[in-house]
Amino acid sequence: MVKYGLDYTRCRWILPLLLGIGVIFGIIALAGRGWLESQTLPYVQRASLWQNCRRPDQGGEWSCESLMGYAWGRAAAATYLVGFLLLVICFALAIIAFAIDTLRFNFIRGIGGLLFVAAVFSIMGLVIYPVKFSSEIEMTGINMFSWAYGFGWTTAIMEICLGFFFCCLPNYEDQILGNVKPTYFYSSP
């Protein structure tokens, strides 16, 4: 990307595209019911960020209780949701930043800083949830934190990595804008 500059059409939108993928992963984590699931038969428990569902036997009905009745449930949901909203704001700002012909590199560095703040909030929610869930809610059988919880961690890791890219990109401003003379290494025969 640095070699061809941000005006190179295929490279210009890579970072906003990756932010968009992070937003999609965050939506999957927020809406998914697979934060915690029973690992073995009979499947008797599954939980999302918002509720915990149990089933007494294999053919029985699922009975669900809201996790918003617990202070830690509200804290985990609120911190992860704040991190997700900051990610959406960064996505919108990145589209604006890369759509403008003249890039504002300090603006891009600000998006990187905001991504780090979003990552902190997301990780707080992702740590509060399993610690308090496993200590305050009785779990039966063998349970595992599952696919939606994994999407939450993937979103947080993407926020950190993209934060580094957005913060480091202004360091290569001259190379990106083509203001550096190329150096040629020539050796005489």
From TrEMBL:
- Bilayer-crossing regions: 12-36, 77-100, 107-131, 151-172
Q: What is this protein called?
A: p53 apoptosis effector related to PMP-22
Q: How does it sit in the membrane?
A: Multi-pass membrane protein
Q: Which GO terms describe its biological process?
A: apoptotic process; cell-cell adhesion
- Source organism per UniProt: Erythrocercus mccallii
Q: So which residues are the signal peptide here? A: none
Q: Which InterPro entries match?
A: P53_induced, PMP22/EMP/MP20/Claudin
- Tell me the PANTHER family matching this sequence: P53 APOPTOSIS EFFECTOR RELATED TO PMP22 A, P53-INDUCED PROTEIN RELATED
Q: Which domain of life is it from?
A: Eukaryota
| Transmembrane found in the keyword field | yes
Q: Which UniProt keywords apply?
A: Apoptosis, Cell adhesion, Cell junction, Cell membrane, Cytoplasm, Membrane, Transmembrane, Transmembrane helix
**Where does it localize?**
Cell junction, Desmosome; Cell membrane; Cytoplasm
